[in-house]
Amino acid sequence: MTLNLGRRFTLTREEYYVSKANSIAIRALDDWTLCLQPGLIIVGPKSSGKTHLASVWMNETGADSFQVSELASLDVQFISKEKFIVIENLDSISELSIKERNMAEEKILHMYNFFAASGGKILMTAVTFPIMWNLGLKDLLSRLMSLQIAELSLPDDKLLAAIMAKQFVDRQIVVPSKVIEYAMARMERSFSFAKKLVDELDIEALSLKKPINKKLVNDVISRLGSRSGN
Fold it and tell me: Which helix (H) or strand (E) holds 196?
């Protein structure tokens, strides 16, 4: 019987691997004190490290983090007491009901205006750019479009290998670098596939009570490939 005993996630700056794919976003976060704008938007594919970067910024600023679903009920008085705020997955605002979306947009606009006047900062993460969020408030869209947008590009080999290695470490699994290199040469080049592969290898290794080796990697990649083809 396989028991889910949880995972140890480390989201510190020291654990974040810097490469050409994310160096611009890292530089933007490092220079946030020099930015005159009230916010920054980090855009990138799923599992690209947006939450990790947001966590680093939260640790350095003491910011509070909110999901989009929490915005509609967020107290305006609470916002006025904050200096730094993180909003994750802001593009998912389009999934809210019309009433909740309208309320959430008004809260974000209030945050923007308040922080623009007070010197506070909002860090937002999303998969897509603001123009694609179907925002009803045109004033909000124009303000978000004026912010600096740091894009996490498609992963290079070094970054993808480093992310996979970190995900294995988070699960307290030791995987030889040669096995990761073997996987890299055969897998789909995407953050989401890397995450799926690590998840499946973790489950399979626990079920079989065997270490993660090249044969297991090959079997799991083949299985994942057949699923996506169906």
Answer: helix 191-208
Please give the chain's pLDDT, 230 residues, in tens.
Answer: 333 434 433 445 445 555 565 666 777 777 776 678 899 999 988 867 788 788 888 888 899 999 898 988 888 777 778 889 999 999 999 999 999 999 999 999 999 999 999 888 999 999 999 999 999 999 999 999 999 888 887 677 887 888 889 889 888 898 999 999 999 999 987 777 888 899 999 999 999 988 999 999 999 999 988 775 55
3-state helix, strand, coil in the chain (%, to 5): 55, 10, 35
Q: What CATH number should be reported for the domain whose range is 22-151?
A: 3.40.50.300
Number of other residues whose CB lies within 10 A of the CB of residue 165: 16
Report d(CA 222, CA 217) in Å as an integer: 9
CATH 3.20.20.70 fits 155-229, yes or no: no
Question: Rounded to an integer, what is the distance from CA 50 to the centroid of its chain?
Answer: 3
Any idea where the domains of the chain sit in the sequence? 22-151, 155-229
Residue that the structure tokens 């699994």 belong to: 173
DSSP tag of 7:
-
